[in-house]
Amino acid sequence: MNMTSIIFSREFKSYFTTPVAYVFIFIFLVLTGVCTFYFGQFYENEVASLQALFAYLPWLFLLLIPAITMRLWSEERKTGTIELLLTLPISMQQAVLGKFLAAWAFTTVAIILTFPIWIIVNILGNPDNGVIICGYFGSILSAGGLIAVGSCISAATKNQVIAFIIAFAINFLLLLAGYPMVLDAFSGWAPELLVDAISSLSFLAHFDSMSKGVIDLRDIIYFVSMIIIWLYASAIIIDSKKAS
Amino acid sequence: MISLKNVTKMFGNFTAVNNLSFTVESGEILGFLGPNGAGKSTTMKMITGFLTPNDGQITIGDYDIIEAPVQAKSIIGYLPEGAPAYGDMTPEEFLKFIAKVRGLTGEKVQERINAVIKQTHIQDVLFKPIDTLSKGYKRRVGLAQAILHDPKILILDEPTDGLDPNQKHEVRKLIKTMAHDKTIIVSTHILEEVSAVCSRAIIIDKGSIVAFGKPHELEERSQYFGSVTISFAEDADCSKVIDKLEQIDGIGTVEFDDITERFTAFPADKYKGIDLFKKVSALIEYENWDVKEIHLERGRFDNFFRSVTAGDLDSEELNNNKTPKVAETETADKGEEL
């Protein structure tokens, strides 16, 4: 069996041997319900689509994904199991990838469990299911990006609370990078090229088009390269920090 | 075979391991000793590929740990300091996970797991989460994990820490039975363990080797080697006894320990061990002393250990006085605190 998949399955199972998985999924589903039906005014809109769900998903991710990723590496460092893991015949890439994929798969399970909303919308009307599938695809992909960020932050600290807060802050900036709140901080003094670069980093902008059913190769490239870059950074940070 | 050549490890400006070189052959059990912070664990972490040395070369069997880390790690079994394990797993799940990573397949998996469970006596806790286990069980689960793939190279960082005396005995027996076809390095704080288990010992201090040799050779280098200790059945006139003993040809100094009420006569010349015993017993007979105990010291590992690992208070005192108080070494005999 491939090393990455061995690490993956150990990690994935470990979510379910502790209450973490059940608490997370329960809260996530309650919040998606609240956001979709209450804030999103799913019924009042009388539109057969999951826009109400997808509009709020990134904000739920912002809050909940750092809760998953905060333990990825900081727990290993705190309990010392990182020494065990990294002295097994496993390469750093396999360890980083295995753990990331487990967190991603777990989040994907949570996202897929929102399917009752999709069933409801199909009972009530005739939604464009292609758009919905595309929206789910985009959600899962952007969750992957945020998890990769969290993995990197978790690698940098032994303290899970710090890992949570910093991952939250960075994810917040990345979500809003294309919006005035972040851009205004730069537009006064920074060269236009930099401002453009920052605005193109926005998670939300790339996710938005996917949630509306547009699959643009550039969006996919954006998320995939986000994942690769942050995971690569994770490996470097783990390597340099593991001794402390 | 494990070979270190001029290995140096720095943490910032602090040199944890300084130009360390040694070789351990197959069939050997090397005892790795040193005070806290001497660089023992750092060295073990470099041997197992967890840390990368700043300088030098480490060869594990046929592999260089830096050039071919995965191949080198695959022939190593490692019990890290504190025996870390995934607390949410049970020992059974944990060993299965390790078996997969170690590339065991088919019947071999259960066969090896059963074997190490028996060897480390963890049958009773197989299905309890590791988090809930006692320190002794955790340590043994860590040991089981390290020997699961029957590795050629075994690195054990304080394998008997936290075990009760019976368990310590079992683990030492286990290490000894595995030695014939393996290369084993054991680090320990417990000096008696070295004499009990190891075929060779290295003492390091501040990242450098300060002494190495067979355990009994190191014991013989202690100043107790060849000294004679006596105690009286009744209270004796202290200064008179010391005076009489010091008059014997070959005796350098005499110490009295007022807690154990023992006199220890140190030889002026270490090679007169047996003579000294005869001379002291002759004196006892001549003076008609009521002695209840007399014995020739074969040397004390802890005493030697402290004399070569300078820096802590005890050894400074030792160097200043040249003759230690017996009471101190008595407590150190229990082993744990050095």
Short recap of the structure:
The complex is a heterodimer of chains A (244) and B (338). Chain A has 244 residues and is mainly α.
Q: Could you explain how this protein is built, in words?
A:
The complex is a heterodimer of chains A (244) and B (338). Chain A is mainly α and 244 residues long. Helices cover 82% and strands 0% of the residues of chain A. Chain B has 338 residues and is of the alpha/beta class. The C terminus of chain B is likely disordered. In chain B, strands 6-7-8-3-9-10 form a six-stranded mixed sheet, with helices on both faces. Chain B has a four-stranded antiparallel sheet with strand order 2-1-4-5. Chain B has a four-stranded antiparallel sheet with strand order 12-13-11-14, with helices on one face. The longest helix of chain B is centred in the last third of the chain and has 15 residues. At the A-B interface, helix 1 and helix 6 of A face helix 2 and helix 3 of B.
Fold blueprint:
The complex is a heterodimer of chains A (244) and B (338).
Chain A: H1 3-17, H2 20-39, H3 42-45, H4 51-69, H5 71-79, H6 81-87, H7 92-112, H8 115-124, H9 129-156, H10 160-176, H11 180-187, H12 192-200, H13 203-211, H14 217-241
Helix pairs in contact in A: 1-7, 2-4, 4-9, 4-10, 4-13, 5-9, 7-9, 7-14, 9-10, 9-13, 9-14, 13-14
Chain B: E1 2-11, E2 14-24, E3 29-33, H1 40-47, E4 55-60, E5 63-64, H2 69-74, E6 76-79, H3 91-101, H4 107-120, H5 135-147, E7 153-157, H6 165-178, E8 183-187, H7 191-197, E9 200-205, E10 208-213, H8 215-220, E11 228-232, H9 238-247, E12 251-257, E13 262-267, H10 273-287, E14 291-296, H11 301-308, H12 313-321, H13 326-333
Helix pairs in contact in B: 3-4, 4-5
